[in-house]
Amino acid sequence: MKVSVIGGTGFVGSHLVERLLADGHVPHLLVRPGSGSKVVQPEQCRLFEGDVTDQAALEACLAGCDAVVYLIGILREHPDRGITFEELQFRGVERTIAAAHRIGVQRFLLMSANGVEAQGTPYQRTKHRAEEAIKATELDWTIFRPSVIFGEPHGRMEFCSQLKHDIIDSPLPVPLFFDGLAIPEAGRFQLAPVSVQDVAAAFSRALTEPAAIGATYPLCGPDVLTWKEILSTIAAASGKTKLMLPAPAAVIKVVAGLLDRWPWFPITRDQIKMLLEGNVCGSSAAFDQLGIVPQRFDAAALGYLKSD
């Protein structure tokens, strides 16, 4: 199949392109000017210069394709550079849907996120609106909702390498966030990290799985771990030990409110809020249907951190 990938130069996108090629597909990639060096195996892909705001470039990228995959997502906004949740996680999806209609691409796969909700943070709300937009069409859509994603970064931002850089490599103790006065609950909120290779495999297999049409798949890894356990695993994979101390979320949010407008500050208020909500789901049925045995989250799986 010829598959248009919107967001194919990012972390998940680089792994999806590898998987599509391994499965015999031909990726068509929308590539921003100056980003061509980020493309995986460019000689086997078709590249179209432009970005998601460029309708003509979108249509050129989709032309002749059997399916389109929309992967673009951000963790924090930079409005001065036009990088906002509204623009990239919702309006971009709308434009790609419109291009798919005009070009005649019926199959549409969307990467959303576990925990999206209509009344959540701007990140969650725009992901939710994107889901509603694709559900309102007559396209053959599939939605994926991954938890936090880990794996070889390929030089991009990735969950574990970012935590290693911001927290484990820092001289400061590891913060175990807690809400209110619940100190005994510090660092006990749970996440279920999912391997980027499993996410890529899910997208690729869904392309040819009739049962995936009209389905929304939660994608969480098989290990449900507390924040403390995740950071301990990252530290162990990095060959380090760290002091861990309770950190009141209310205080961190106040500090973030003052500083999270600058990229060097490692976390935003909304990210703290979403962390404390946890991020787990039941994915056994999804992985079984797609024929995937999900990878464990352990020090062995994080070997890439040793050279980070």
Mean pLDDT: 94
Q: What's the number of helices? A: 10
| C-alpha geometry | globular
Q: How is the biggest beta sheet arranged? A: 7 strands, parallel
Helix-strand string: EHEEHEHEHEEHEEEHEEHEHHH
Number of separate strands: 13
In percent, how helical is the residue content? Answer: 25-40%
Query: What is the total domain count?
Result: 2
Structural class: alpha/beta
InterPro entries: ComplexI_NDUFA9_subunit, NAD(P)-bd_dom, NAD(P)-bd_dom_sf
Domain NAD(P)-binding: 7-159
Protein name: Putative nucleoside-diphosphate sugar epimerase
GO molecular function: protein-containing complex binding
Could you characterize what this model shows?
The chain contains 10 helices and 13 strands. It is α/β, with parallel strands linked by helices. The protein has 2 domains: 201 residues, Rossmann fold, CATH 3.40.50; 84 residues, no CATH class. The protein is globular and about 55 Å long.
